[in-house]
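Need a sequence for this fold. Nothing fancy.
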């Protein structure tokens, strides 16, 4: 592990070898990052990328709300943006947020500035970098509807300023190159009274609390909705509500969520997900696609 550290450039932020991920990942599972990098700012990240050998894998992570980190850990460098690159600024009806800003923090900042249209972010776990990458949406709103432009760094550290219309944003995906790291995004809404915006946000929070498991170790929605259908309904129809593998269970409250009951491994959660996919396909003929991204090296065999 120290060998990789020796190959990395000096930084103003923090580098740590064999760094835990399960303590901060939303599912509370996963092996260590070979090296974890928390940049001091965007310039620090840019300099790091430019000076890091091209053969070193680099994975940007926000708060791992939409990631399942496997038990064997992650080779290379994990760049943790959440809690670091979190600045938000407003200008009229526009809001610009760094990639590590929480989605809900963006919603709150927009409300305080009297910017309507970003309320849906209060109900989405995660950070803005991931929201842009996967065109996150919920509660009647979607990232591409409000996104104006992004700033991203490629693997060499080169910066790219790109308007939203050139990102190929579609349902839970974008056409951005895989090696790009979104570092900043600009959105535009409409003027409205902060009190009115906050009332709509409270309604979204109440709806989410009533429908989703919030006080347990889980991630975002596990599977994408097939066209014209709801993933949770297909999972329910296949009899998978409450299905368990080891310490992992399909939520009784919303069966498109997998829950770590306290002692699950990443292999438990991934095996449970694959079991659900197989049962849904056998019962309905529909093959669900994972919405949660699985990363890292397996620590145990995953089966269906």
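Here you go.
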């Amino acid at each position: 592990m120290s060998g990789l550290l020796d190959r990395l450039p000096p930084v103003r932020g923090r580098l740590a070898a064999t760094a835990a991920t399960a303590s901060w990942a939303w599912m509370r599972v996963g092996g260590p990052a070979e090296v974890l990098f928390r940049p001091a700012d965007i310039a620090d990240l840019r300099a790091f990328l430019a000076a890091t050998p091209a053969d070193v894998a680099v994975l940007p992570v926000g708060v791992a709300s939409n990631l399942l980190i496997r038990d064997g850990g992650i080779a290379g460098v994990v760049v943790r943006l959440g809690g670091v690159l979190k600045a938000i600024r407003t200008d009229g009806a526009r809001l610009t947020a760094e990639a590590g800003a929480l989605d809900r923090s963006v919603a709150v900042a927009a409300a305080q500035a009297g910017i309507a249209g970003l309320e849906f972010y209060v109900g989405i776990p995660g950070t803005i970098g991931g929201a842009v990458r996967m065109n996150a949406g919920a509660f009647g709103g979607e990232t591409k509807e409000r996104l104006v432009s992004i700033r991203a760094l490629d693997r060499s550290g080169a910066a790219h300023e790109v308007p939203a219309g050139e990102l190929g944003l579609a349902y839970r995906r974008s056409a951005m190159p895989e090696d790009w790291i979104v570092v900043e995004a600009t959105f535009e809404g409409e003027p409205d009274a902060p009190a009115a915006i906050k009332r709509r946000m409270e309604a979204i929070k109440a709806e989410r609390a009533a429908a989703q498991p919030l006080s347990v170790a889980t991630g975002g929605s596990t599977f994408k909705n097939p066209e014209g259908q709801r993933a949770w309904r297909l999972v329910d129809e296949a009899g998978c509500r409450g299905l368990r593998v080891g310490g992992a269970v399909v939520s009784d409250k919303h069966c498109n969520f997998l829950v770590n009951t306290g002692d699950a491994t990443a292999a438990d959660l991934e095996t449970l997900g694959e079991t659900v996919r197989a049962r849904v396909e056998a019962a309905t003929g529909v093959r669900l696609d994972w919405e949660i991204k699985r990363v890292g090296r397996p620590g145990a065999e995953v089966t269906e």
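For context: The chain has a mean pLDDT of 96.
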